[in-house]
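ok trying this again, last paste got cut off
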Amino acid sequence: MPSVALISLAMLVFGFGLRMEFSVVAFGAFRPLLVLTQAAVAQIEPRLLERSQVLGLSAWQRSVKTALPAIVPRLFAALRLGVAVALVVAVTVEIAANPNGMGYAMMIAQQSLDPALTLAWLGWIGVLGYAINAAALALQRSVARRTGVPA
């Protein structure tokens, strides 16, 4: 089910406001994170897990010292995708239900037949998305330097 389809249900449950918007955005961002994290864990090299068992590591140690470093690059790809989906869903929810959001402001500018303002809001949303992606990449590089895992 697309997360945007849950806007109506979230309005019934939470009413208008930030709780409703947050719930729909969280649902929309959680699914890609979950699916990609599961895929990353499933694609861990079996020899890495075998070696950690041979070394006698506990399940917690295998998770922290073997599995987590192996999935870090894919985990950050999932994070960046989840953040992108969250931004799209947030703007969509704001168009439908939040009169204080960027999506609503862009829709009002479009309905007022003001293409310059509409494009300005669209550009601002694009800049915001670019900045969030750049921050996620910087975080990924920082974690990669600390753990020694290739970015």
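PB: full thing came through this time. The longest helix spans residues 59-97.
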